[in-house]
TrEMBL record:
Domain of life: Eukaryota
Organism listed in the record: Amphimedon queenslandica (Sponge)
Compositional bias of kind Polar residues: 19-32, 44-56
Protein's name in the database: Uncharacterized protein
Location of the region described as Disordered in the Swiss-Prot/TrEMBL record: 1-69
Length: 250
């Protein structure tokens, strides 16, 4: 009938309304889900930030590590020595060398084997440090002699620098960590001894060393002795022996 049909439609509408109005209960509120999501986001951001800080810290440590490891604490020794290279009537030449090493005995042994005639009477600068990691020691001529003095001091390179890493790398070859200076004297003109100051910079010692040389003889007879003292001594002894024995050498 019309009434029954109307009642059935009403019942169905009521059931549909009840189902629509009644949400499914999952046991978790929307606020809880939102809070949990926010916490996870904050945790990820925190972890990412910590990671960035850690990476930056590690990079800083790597950058600083060479300064901490590098040998500003290593000790070095400098030594000056001279070799006579040329003796003539017009000029006398020496090669003055300043070497920096970590083992002075090794340098002395090297000179005995490779440069036995070197005059090892120059100044020694013991136990110094470079001011900076991979530092540079520089030799600075303070007062070069005038031409009128008969002396000339001429560096073989400019600037005169010895780098720390070169000393460390070529431990067995001190020539790689050496500075060479040519010293010239004119016989008869250079009458006063040479006393040429050189300041050392870039190391922890405030130091001035000197190139000291005596002037060459001015006469030919003195020059012969100066050039080869051993041979001149033998010649002098032979003349004395002949004279004392009254031997006629004609």
């Amino acid at each position: 009938s019309t009434d029954d049909t109307h009642n059935d439609s009403g019942n169905r509408a009521g059931e549909t309304s009840e189902r629509t109005a009644s949400p499914i209960n999952t046991g978790v509120s929307q606020e809880s889900v939102t809070d949990d999501f926010d916490q996870k986001v904050q945790k990820v951001e925190s972890t990412s930030g910590a990671s960035n800080v850690s990476n930056e810290s590690t990079e800083d440590e790597v950058k600083q590590k060479p300064n901490e490891d590098k040998g500003v604490t290593l000790l070095y020794t400098g030594m000056m020595y001279h070799e006579k290279k040329e003796v003539t009537e017009s000029i006398t030449k020496w090669l003055t060398t300043f070497s920096v090493v970590r083992d002075l005995k090794a340098l002395q042994s090297y000179l005995e084997n490779e440069h036995p005639e070197a005059e090892k009477d120059g100044p020694i600068v013991p136990a110094f440090k470079y001011n900076e990691p991979d530092g540079i020691l520089q030799l600075c001529l303070q007062d070069t002699p005038s031409l009128e003095s008969g002396w000339t001091v001429y560096p073989d390179q400019s600037p005169m620098q010895i780098r720390q890493y070169v000393v460390d790398k070529f431990i067995d070859n001190p020539m790689c960590s050496s500075i060479h200076i040519s010293v010239y004297a004119k016989p008869g003109i250079a009458k006063d001894p040479l006393h040429c100051p050189i300041e050392l910079t870039g190391i922890n010692l405030s130091k001035i060393i000197y190139i000291d040389r005596t002037p060459p003889p001015s006469s030919m007879s003195q020059l012969q002795f100066y050039r080869d003292p051993q041979n001149s001594i033998l010649q002098t002894d032979a003349v004395s022996l002949i004279s004392s024995s009254a031997i006629n050498i004609e």
